[in-house]
Design brief:
CATH superfamily: HUPs
Strand order of the largest sheet: 3-2-1-4-5
Oligomer: single chain
CATH class: Alpha Beta
Length: 242
Amino acid sequence: MERKNAVLLLSGGLDSTTLLALATSEGYAVHALSFDYGQRHSAELSAAKKIAQRYDVAQHLVATIDLRIFGGSSLTSDTPVSKDRELSDGNDEIPFTYVPARNTIFLSYALALAEVSGARDIFIGVNALDYSGYPDCRPAFIAAFQRLANLATRVGVESKEEPAIRIRTPLIELTKRQIIELGLGLGVDYSMTTSCYDPGADGEACGRCDACQLRLRGFREAGATDPARYATTAEVPTGSGA
């Protein structure tokens, strides 16, 4: 039986790797898409390449764009990454690690790849619980982009299916603990992944940025050991919503 094609945004991080394992387990032929967008380190791209090979994807493309020309984020500028922030439930503050319009841009590239590969499903590992401060991780944004995708493409216009193209977000309402538990159940090797916003030159995670704190808390609440290498480990609260 011929496998269905799907496009999946692969960053090399914990969430997108879990998503790749899930899509693979569902029988999709995955066309993985990563981005060299001017981010402050290349660790995630190196991880994405190894992860794509591990899951024997149909193809792995790395699109090169330069979001540094716009600035507005500590991930695409020399502005220091925030460390040791208190991460509490219900925090609506948009952190400076938010990259303006990044998911809109990434999904637009994914949509182009979906058209040429015949994929009807686009997977993106957004999460509204851990990153509720990011406006482009909300369910409302995903729903709006799916409407756009079906208005702006040949398959959306010609297909009798409704919707012709689906933006798949299986992790969007899961806690970090639940994502890790899902991945461990699928056999994900999390030592291959990187989450840190500001890793050292040798690839060690800082243990203090938002991404490290959320990851550490998720593993702790899942009762599992994080295999990532850390320069230092922040004391992370074990409250809900990790």
